[in-house]
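<instruction>
Derive structure tokens from the sequence

<record> Sequence and structure tokens follow
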Amino acid sequence: MKPERRLWVVSELYYPEQTSTGYFLTRIAEGLASSMPVEVVCGQPTYSEHGVRAPAREDRGGVRINRVPATHFGKDRLLLRAINILTLTLSVAWFALFNFARGDRLLIVTNPPTLPPLVGLIARWKRMDAHLLVHDVYPEVLAATGFMRRQSLPYRLLERLFSATFALYGSIIVLGRDMADLVRVKLRGAERRVTIIPNWGDVDEIAPLARDANPFFALNQIDAPYVIQFSGNIGRTHDVETIIAAAHQLKSRSDILFVFAGYGGKTDFISQAVASGELPNVRLLPRQPRELLGPMLASATATIISFVDEMKGLSVPSRMYNVLAAGTPIIAIADADSELSLTIAEEHSGWVLAPGDTDALVALVERLAAPAGAEEARQFGANGRAAVSRSYTLASVLEGFRETLR
């Protein structure tokens, strides 16, 4: 009897990483392992669990994990991060050459962007059934964050490279409708199957919590009755400048507290604003442990998910679904046609503002700190919780992957 084809899941981040990519890829791989043989190729932890040394080979949740060697310099310096990515890419490619078999299946994520081109070529050579999972779209995201100019020669060369990379894969999985539209443009007429499979919210682990039953308030000595939160990756793609500008305008309101919890490329901007002493209404907290994620998300009157301009189609925030699972409404600062904004509007679970519109954010926060606005927030939060329970669950996501991989 011919052995069943293996599914190789390739990702820089995997268990024990708890950042979004590591967490989601771990749950997807383990969920698929009940219906097919699954092996993972990944690196050692370099983000949330940096410094942890995991076994080179490990079986967990029905999945064989293969951790390949690579450098592990601090990721805050661009050159050292680039060296980490290069060594990981070469190591994964070397492993793939000698372990992937003809007819196997491949599911690879777009981060880091050097992996899909090289591994895609190997998969094409070995006649594998290859699927690309798009979390971020390159090089467009580099232009949106100011790393490259769209008119530059390097940008145009990378644009051609990644368009060719997309064409290497027979199937492309994206997180949202705006991303699907952009991927079809990047395919430049190549006929490929583009499937939308969103992320999910952990409705069993994360749920609404009454204030008097929520430990997050006492642990962080939060007394303000209205909490506007930004949590997760505080990266260059996120418009935190508008939030800080709104906090400046509302600094006389002792009943409103802006809470940032997380880490990323713009953390220093927020810490400097707090250190100036001019913003008593802003608190910066470190990334919270997984066991406090639910209480943290449920502690907010509203959570802001913000993007800089020109991010439509480039990224879909996975945090959205857990925020909604907590019964917390979302203030989306994003393009009105982005997946984030479309979901919020369709599910009546928050508000959509344009990037950079500080006055609109100030007016909305002031409204939420009034009885009518607080009631509106509670209703939107309930709508969001119902939407996640109905449409954005792990079970529905896994079924989408199984159907695509068939």
Q: What stands out?
A: The longest strand covers residues 226-233. DSSP finds 15 helices and 14 strands in the chain.
